[in-house]
């Protein structure tokens, strides 16, 4: 297993951080917590280009991602008149575009090695080519998938599995891939919270809707059953490993512990390894103080894979 990280993944928000419950330096915290494992860490080096993003977005979205009002709304921060688009771009959009490049790099390396690549950022599962919301601007998994097909690394006949274990339903992935029958989505989510879209929930191939307050034991049992329903011949798997499932998280509404999160990632990656499916883990959401601790515990649990 290799980690994908860049120091510029971190959101250095300055005063903006008081307007959002996001721990902007989470990625560097995780890295320092797993330093002793001696895992190799690679960087995407440069962010994904505007052309690559534009190739994925529809016409209206190409305009919206360059418009301060729409970007503010998607980031769920109040409108601040004196902040320019360039400032937002530098502080938030650039790190996100670097994360998109990280997910693409992870997918390429996972296909090369057949193993596990762990991108500390990415997993922007509320974005698609047609909308951006929930602190997600660019859908890294969909953009990576499109580029892999364009570059001949995957064909449209290749089956791909997305395992989304963030507390929120991955409406962006469900929408993006709804017509691609070879891309399957397993989604474990709190059905009582955002996003409540019935249309995208119906697109999930292996849905695991949970109610608020679900604890680790039930969560892991339901995930295990769902994994057994998936096929064994996927060419690649993406995981959206959000840590907003933690009991401390104010947004997710679930009751997992740090140990449960580590057991979850281990269960998923062991399942994929059993079937020799290359895997790319992406960060997903996670806004509590415990988030970095949970991610580092999960990496520790999976370090030998
Ligand atoms: Zn989430």
Automatic annotation (TrEMBL):
Tagged with keyword Hydrolase: yes
Residues in the signal sequence: none
Record-level Gene Ontology MF annotations: histone deacetylase activity; hydrolase activity
Domain spans labelled Histone deacetylase: 21-297
Swiss-Prot/TrEMBL keywords: Hydrolase
Bilayer-spanning residue ranges: none
UniProt record, GO biological process: epigenetic regulation of gene expression
Domain of life the protein comes from: Bacteria
Protein name: Acetoin utilization protein AcuC
